[in-house]
Amino acid sequence: MSQVSRSSQGLSFLDQLYFGYFVSHIPITLLVDVVPLFPSERIPSFMLGLNRFLTEQLNDPFMIIGTTRSDMTWFRSLLACELVFQLPFFFYAAYAIWNGSSKRHAPLLVYGAHVSTTMVPVLGMLAFGDIGRTFNQRLMLAGLYLPYLLIPLSMVIVSFKQCAKAIAETQAKKKFD
């Protein structure tokens, strides 16, 4: 059986990974990622505590609440896109993967390409930006953000192959009709 097909024992390894990624990303988006988009007085205290941990313990420069630094506006725009466009998609993707939908690959390809390209400037800023962090702090933050590049990038590769295969099968079928 192929690496991405549903086996008799359930989901393939990659489908399990993708399913876990999307399901876990729902609370991450709602409880962590959207926090910098709102004024601190509008955020519940437990969410402020999570944010404080990210910004103080992990030294995450992107998740600071209430900053007016214009150089982080680009990151907040990515968070707004995550809330408006990606969050609804997480539900669709988890459902489609869980049910083994053959129609999941094109949307996963688009999602994976979008997120992979948005993570490049984030990781670039961590690696080369003037963010006032030590090498070890940058490394730890890169480790936190890197899965959000690698998992979507693997979606691009796998989904592209599946889409190309489906197109080839459709074209071959048309030749015989």
Quick recap of the structure?
The protein is mainly α and 177 residues long. The protein is built from 6 helices and no strands.
What are the SSEs and their pairings?
Layout: H1 13-33, H2 45-57, H3 73-98, H4 105-128, H5 135-145, H6 147-176
Features:
177 residues, 0% strand, disordered N terminus, mainly alpha
Number of beta-strand segments: 0
Mean pLDDT: 90
H/E series? HHHHHH
Number of helices: 6
Roughly what fraction of the amino acids lie in strands? Answer: under 5%
List low-pLDDT spans: 1-8
Terminus-to-terminus distance? 28 Å
Shape: elongated
Largest sheet: none
Assembly type of the chains comes to single chain
Radius of gyration: 19 Å
- Percent of residues in helical segments? over 70%
Structural class: mainly alpha
Task: Write up this protein.
It is a single chain. The chain is mostly helical. It is built from six helices and no strands. Residues 1-8 have low confidence and may be disordered.
